[in-house]
Amino acid sequence: MSSTGLSQQERDERIAELESRLEKRSYVGVSIPVSVLALGVVCFLLAGQLKDLRFFFAPGTPLTLGAEEAYRFERLQSNRFVQIHGTPTPRGLYEVRNGKRYLLVGLKGTPILVHRKPLPGEEQLSGKAPPQPDQRPFAVRGRLLAAQDASSYGESIRTAAAVTGLQPLDGQLWIVLEGERPRSDVKALLVCFVLAAFGGLNGWFLWRNLRYRFALRRPSPKLSGEGR
User: What percent of the chain shows pLDDT beyond 70?
Assistant: First the structure.
């Protein structure tokens, strides 16, 4: 051992001291496990928003599905803005959603339900049975969803199909949410922005903390020089 050098034991003690200091150093922001968990939650929540985000950027021109005796079922496409004309089924399903009353009524000769607000004369009076849906043909514009993509309406769709006698096409039922159109609701965009910002922040925390962990495994340049 040279007069200016360190013994192996002293070098090991010095390395252990530096590693201990690095380990005691506080993580930047949050710890690695918390950052990983946060990123996983963000990815899960973003996946749940993708359908709404795609509809936000969907074409604003409605896809025409036709009218009685001339329906264009080959154009049925989930999560699109559409318009269709038809005759309502004699029976419908009334429901309350988010404190508001709605009616689900089928279009005769189609596998499509329309979810809309009650028209004048369709209001239910206290103590009386729900009135029959207005039987005049009508046109509607809104967001078209395959039943499998409308999970929050799943039970309503099944019940309404049984009430109206609506028959699936190729095993599939569809629902038009009247009044919903692309870029009319910025909620999905704002939610995705907030989630992406939160995920980016935790990604930055994760990157910084991993740098500290990798620093523990690199030999110190100063120590390397001391051993010569």
Answer: 82
